[in-house]
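A common beginner's mistake is to predict each chain separately and then try to dock the pieces by hand. The better habit, illustrated here, is to supply every component at once so that their relative placement is modeled jointly.
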Amino acid sequence: MKYVYFDNAATSWPKPPEVLQAMEHFIKEVGASPGRAGHKRTVEANGIVDETRELLARQFNINDHQQISFTMNATDGLNTAIKGILKPGDHVITSSMEHNSVSRPLYVLEQEGVQVTKIKCNFQGDICLQKIEQAIKPNTKLLIITHGSNVTGTIMPVKDIGEIAQKHNIYFLLDASQTAGIENIDVQKFNINMMAFPGHKSLYGPQGTGALYVAGGMPVHPLRQGGTGTKSDTPYQPEVLPEKFESGTLNALGIAGLGAGLKFINRVGMDAIKEREMQLTKKFLEGVKKIPNIVVHGPRNAEKQLPVVSFEIKGHKAGDVGKPLDEQYNIACRAGLHCAPDAHHTLGTFNRKLVRFSFSYFNTPDEVEYALRSLREIAMDMPKN
Ligand SMILES: Cc1ncc(COP(=O)(O)O)c(C=O)c1O
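With all components supplied together, the output reads:
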């Protein structure tokens, strides 16, 4: 039986052939730790890491590629940014569509005296810009927004939010987990001061990769201290970027793969990748509408969302749909809360949860048709409540 992978919003699979080649090359021919020692293999590893940083800088219009620090994933970068800048007494504004990688660090900080305002989004996951402005207080230091919801695929108006942040002199942190590699992101045009993103989703790198952009001069304290390969004679952590946030041996193997993922995006073109993914999304949205008893949440419009669609079969828990999809039909999806309980409260789906399909460049129209046929069969077999 064919295997269909529709869980790309968690991590993309398969990876492009150049990613496998770059990682194989690194393991077999390079292997050394970048930024340490000065032997030939280290120099080569340095070159690979530096090239990936430069590719990322180009992708997001970042002036200085040293302002990008590699992280383990998006969560790692978000924790560094959030905990590194907020202090007791500060106020932070965020949305009700955030992932736990934003909500949980904020929850911890709230216990320590940081004031948190969550702007409630509507049923589509859209945020009201006026409500953001109304929430600003004299001690508001940071605005954190997810660029795209990992539940509904809703895209936030980042440019407008960046303008609000700039107008009120507030730092702007973007969680680009669902958009890096598929949406145009220009940190300068959007007034983004910090941005965290994974390397393993739409940038097509391997798991264990991610990065944090911190604009020069930002007063962000590092979460970790340790070996950086530079200024080893000082007891304190270097202030220089990217070492400030890069203690310990880097995941150079993963970074080699991430660099190849970026080269894949440049080879195929981000627009072409997005177009293919949105055609699949459109096909799925049109088909699923015709299946009785299935309710789709979010924008339900391929022109206005990411290739992420969440739905339910009326009266049934998401797990009861995800299980047959996996076990009987070999379709990998994500059924549950998607690590975004606030988003599910916003949609009113916290108790029943949702089934999520998320598409990548490597999915096909045939797979979407097969999934629609499978869903129809599952929906027909389930008792109507
Ligand atoms: C919106 C959003 N933020 C953050 C994350 C966390 O990403 P990572 O697993 O790379 O830490 C995800 C992952 O699903 C996400 O969708």
